[in-house]
Specification:
- With 126 residues, the chain is mainly beta.
- The protein contains no helices and eleven strands.
- Strands 2, 4, 5, 6, 9, 10 and 11 form a seven-stranded mixed β-sheet that branches. It has a four-stranded antiparallel β-sheet with strand order 1-3-8-7, with no helix packed on it.
- It is globular, with a radius of gyration of 13 Å.
Length: 126
Amino acid sequence: QVQLVESGGGLVQAGGSLRLSCTASGRTISNHAMGWFRQAPGKEREVVAAISWKSSSIEYANSVKGRFTISRDNAKETVYLQMNNLKPEDTAVYSCAVMIRGYYSTYDALGAYDYWGQGTQVTVSS
């Protein structure tokens, strides 16, 4: 069993930055791929970024490339999402998830992840 807790969300003006953190407990995530997802009101949850356990493979949604950076510190059991140049369309609940049993090649499939955090709200005002 893995517990994931996100933090760092909030209200920011367009063009601003936020850094989200996702810290795990209960079981190590250091050997597993992680993903950040978001869900805006009335929309489906979508993958934002994913990172393999060694950080050797990283993927981003086209909508955030060049603005968001995913990273991890396995010693701290924590994954980060640095979000720069935020836009109103980035407003959503952001959640992290860990892939225990699946393969990294399926990083964009929600069903590939085994445990999810509760999410943190990010609101970008124009």
